[in-house]
Amino acid sequence: MKVIGLTGGIASGKSTIANLLRSLGAPVFDADAESRALVAKGRAALNEIALTFGIEYLTDGGELNRPKMAELVFHDKEALKKLESFLAECRSKNLPAAVLDVPLLIECGWYKDVDAVWLVAVDSETQIERAMARSNMTREEVKARIAAQMTLEEKKAYASLVIDNSGTFAETEKAVAAAWKNFTAEA
After folding, report:
1. Separation CA 155–CA 17 (nearest Å)
2. pLDDT tens digits for 53-85?
């Protein structure tokens, strides 16, 4: 079985691509959803993080400071066990491929453990507009979040495939279907 590491910056449309892959039959492990569920506001794990690592790992609103904790979360043994379990299940079903939807795939070194890195990319203005529309952040807040991440150009050096998600949904859907077909044909 071959494994795709799917990544992209904030508001690049990575979730859209993951959903398109699911609709094509791809099993997708959503690392962000897994980590969010474990450390949601009010959950015991979030309190344990604050007690163990300090209050600076929480935002002013009492939620997890994700950038600060990203490195730890992706090296957490429980998260790795869930990932390994997902991949083992996919292998047991003789699936040709699986997808790991991991926002910080490159930054955390997981790119080394996949067969291909698919990078979802959009121009910076589209990224800013999408992030503002979905999260109520200001332009300056979005720009600061983008600036704190690895740049798109840096990520491209790791990518096996760059999916341009700045066109229409139909264009993106067509590109993803073709890429998945090619990838699974090689598996």
Report:
1. 17
2. 777 778 888 877 766 665 555 556 666 677 778
